[in-house]
Amino acid sequence: MSAIDLANRALVLRKGGDEGECVCYWMSREQRCEDNQALTFASEIADRLGLPVLVFFALAPKFIGAARRHYDFMLDGLTEVERELTGKGMGFRLLVGEPEKTVPDLISEVNPAALVTDFDPLRAKQAWKERAIREIDVTVYEVDAHNIVPCRFASNKREWGAATLRRKINALFPSYLRRPPPIKMPKATWKEAQPVDWKKARSSVQAEDLGDLITWIEPGGKAAKKRLKAFLTHGLSGYPERRNDPTREGQSDLSPYLHFGQISALRVAWEVTRSEAPETSKKAFLEELVVRRELSDNFCLHVPDYDSVSGFPEWSKVTLDQHRYDERDYIYTAREFEEARTHDRLWNAAQREMVSRGKMHGYMRMYWAKKILEWSETPEEAMRTAIMLNDRYELDGRDPNGYTGIAWSIGGVHDRAWPSRKVFGKVRFMSYGGAKSKFDVESYIERWS
Ligand code: FAD
Ligand code: FO1
């Protein structure tokens, strides 16, 4: 991998010994073989030391309220990863149980010369890693294989708006936008193949079954590439016009794949840049895929309370406080929201789209979250409800994009102050009338009733 690809992407989390029998990559956020800089980094160390590569995934029985639909999507994708890795002479192990226990056990069993992990700003993930590497005496690296411009390098502090980060990213983007290197077979192959018992793995998961099968999207890296190809051919050129119309298939539907790391954002950006679509379409899409998405990682990395009111900017905390006791026209409990039992047919339709499809349209997510603020007792309660529902039903939930999108909607994070109004104060308001002026709300309601 060329120097630039790795430049400022890999970080030494802790110095340890560098003797051992293999090099391990603890795969977590980037659940793919191809275009995975963490995997490439591990195999380069392995080749330098003449050692084989062992990749492992620590399957936690529970993860921030994930349901069966999330684990099915993820595990189907991981079965593909196992086949690809073993086909490249690398080992793959699935550890079942709490990672802070199963990871140190594996490390002492296989005695690696180095451990590579992938970057993830979420508190739960950072805690797993911190606790898992505490007792082991191995050099541990963290590689940002999620962001095109590595998160820690793009900015070393909380960015207050997209504009400041956009400048930094746009300056670096051209040098990081390069064809992802192909996966090489390591010189030393992993000997003892231990096929994963996927049946046992699935039964180890304690996730609620929401009683539905999500069939409109196929999990896994191959399906992700097919989806990307279809979007490049049919969707990209009309993206600026269609992306905010929930009655049209104007988005890429890549977020579940990006969330589980089944496709690399660098691969998406690389193919988008080389496509025939108009420059304006490419620019509009890359603004979301690169600037907005990397802004979310920046927010979650630098604001540990990214999922609560305390993480909001000062101006919005003050304004929401001033309007804390405004009379709410409607008040709903989390249960009433979850069952789409509000007075607002448009809001109910969005909730039903999320529950049944596992992916609410991007425009509706803003409206949906803002109405939860408007119809909840307090902003804190609104945050709890929005995050709980988002992580319970969205296939792309439990993601920095989600916590940041909800904080933008309810707390004006990365947004500016607007003329003050009831309940919202200076936080941007969105109305049914506004939606009606943008798209055919009746046909959206019709579709999701
Ligand atoms: P496209 O429009 O095709 O965009 C392509 C990619 O760009 C997306 O996959 C995503 O990675 C990125 N992107 C697009 N819009 C945004 C955005 N506003 N912020 C950050 N990245 C963006 N996204 C999630 O991945 N998981 C979530 O749980 C989530 N929850 C959200 C909750 C709220 C209240 C809001 C306002 C936004 C949320 N988003 C979330 C961001 C955005 O709505 C989704 O990423 C997008 O709708 C995913 O569909 P797509 O891949 O078809 O999007
Ligand atoms: N990552 C893991 O390393 N192990 C898991 O068992 C795991 C479960 C899981 C379930 C649902 C979900 O949405 C994500 C899950 N993740 C898991 C994390 C995921 O890979 C991403 O790293 C983060 O959610 C995004 O930052």
Biggest sheet, spatial arrangement of strands: 1-6-5-2-3-4
Work out the strand percent. Answer: 5-15%
Runs in which pLDDT lies below 50 for 5 or more consecutive residues are: none
Cα separation of the termini: 51 Å
In short:
This protein has helices at residues 3-6, 37-49, 68-87, 99-110, 123-134, 151-154, 162-176, 198-204, 221-235, 239-242, 255-259, 265-274, 279-302, 314-322, 334-338, 345-357, 362-374, 379-393, 400-411, 432-438, 441-447, and strands spanning 10-14, 23-27, 53-59, 91-96, 114-118, 139-143. With 449 residues, the chain is α/β, with parallel strands linked by helices.
Architecture overview:
This protein is an alpha/beta fold. It contains 21 helices and six strands. The chain has three domains: 3-146, 3-Layer(aba) Sandwich (Rossmann fold); 149-180 and 220-302, Serine Threonine Protein Phosphatase 5, Tetratricopeptide repeat (Alpha Horseshoe), CATH 1.25.40; 309-447, DNA Cyclobutane Dipyrimidine Photolyase, subunit A, domain 3, CATH 1.10.579.10. The chain is globular, with a radius of gyration of 22 Å. Residues 28-29, 58-60, 63, 66, 70-71, 74, 120, 122, 125, 260, 397-399 line the site of ligand FO1.
